[in-house]
Design a protein that fits this description.
Rossmann fold, 12 strands, globular, 28% helix, 330 residues, 2 domains, alpha/beta, 10 helices
């Protein structure tokens, strides 16, 4: 292909991040302009037809938007796209695609591990091992327990499948209720959340961050949960009001929490969550497996081939709703 005919891809990464592995496969077919700063993106996006964003927390895209006069497609290498959905992009005709499907199973495996950590009291076992102390104990079973998955998209669906396989009964919460879902017992509407919370032993947040879900888990939601229930958040940090969660954990309103995402990231070293014995903290890594960066670029290149050939893109985000509409298996 003649150089003049090659499309330009503006690549935005975090300041300390190199271009993702595998993107060099497109070097002969596209001009790739790598940016890590606001100013760099403004320069890179001016001639770009495609914007590839790996820094999902960025606010630089909105700053550069007035300069993106030739843009035809925005792709985010993340499941959540809330940072990209500013009004100008939402109102435009430019499609946004995401990484739906890449992280689903790994995140579901992490959720199962978090449930087992609580049920089998793994934190105490590890602490005893470090002290070389032998103490026989009894632990909980997970078979027959109930899980409520808040967010019944592709990630929530994988969570439901893996938990069902482990013997839990799994219901869901979604914007659209349904009673005939093949993976959930029942999917309830968001308005039924507080009604369903008392029935769950494990409440798993797998929803995207939208105006509807922001602050969804507050003091009122925690008060509705069973006192023996555990909260697991692998969705987005701002879905949970952190101060309310700390109070609920400290006062025994709920039994525990496993958290992969937070309102402020990294979680400050002085934050009280670090020292709470009923809290497990991971570092926004629930879906990150060995080879995930390569998988993300393989997915992007597949969509690039479709874009180049004039075929419909995969994983197109509904910009009004803030996520890719779920596909419900039959």
């Amino acid at each position: 292909m003649d150089t003049a005919e090659r499309p330009t891809i503006a690549l935005l990464t975090a300041p300390d991040e190199a271009p993702p592995p595998g993107l060099d496969r497109l070097e002969e077919r596209a001009e790739i302009r790598h940016a890590t700063t606001r100013e760099g993106l403004i320069e890179a996006v001016g001639e770009a037809q495609i914007l590839l964003v790996t820094d999902f927390r960025t606010r630089f895209v909105r700053d550069a938007w007035p300069h993106a006069t030739r843009l035809e497609w925005v792709h985010a290498t993340s499941a959540g796209v809330d940072a990209l959905l500013f009004p100008e992009l939402i109102q435009s005709s430019i499609p946004v695609t995401n990484a739906r499907g890449i992280f689903d199973r790994p995140i579901a495996e992490t959720v199962l591990g978090m449930i087992l950590l609580f049920a089998k009291d793994m934190r105490t076992t590890l602490a005893l091992q470090e002290r070389r102390e032998w103490r026989h104990r009894e632990t909980e079973r997970i078979q027959g327990k109930r899980a409520l998955v808040v967010g019944a998209g592709s990630i929530g669906r994988q969570i439901a499948r893996i938990l069902d396989g482990a013997g839990l009964a799994v219901d869901g919460i979604a914007s659209r209720p349904r009673s005939d879902d093949p993976d959930f017992g029942t999917v309830y509407g968001t308005d039924a959340l507080h009604e369903q919370l008392p029935r769950a032993d494990y409440v798993v947040i797998a929803a995207p961050l939208t105006e509807t879900t922001r602050g969804l888990f507050d003091a009122e939601a925690f008060a509705a949960m069973d006192p023996g229930a555990r909260l697991i958040n692998i969705g987005r940090g701002p879905i949970v009001v952190t101060d309310d969660l700390v109070t609920a954990l400290d006062q025994g309103v709920i039994a525990g929490a496993a958290l992969d995402v937070f309102e402020e990231e990294p979680l400050p070293a002085a934050h009280p969550l670090w020292d709470m014995p009923n809290v497990f903290i991971s570092h926004h890594m629930a879906g990150d497996f060995v080879g995930w960066r390569e998988a993300l670029i393989h997915q992007f290149i597949d969509n690039f081939e479709r874009w180049s050939g004039g075929y419909p893109l995969r994983n197109v985000v509904d910009k009004q709703r803030g996520y890719v509409p779920p596909e419900i298996p039959t």
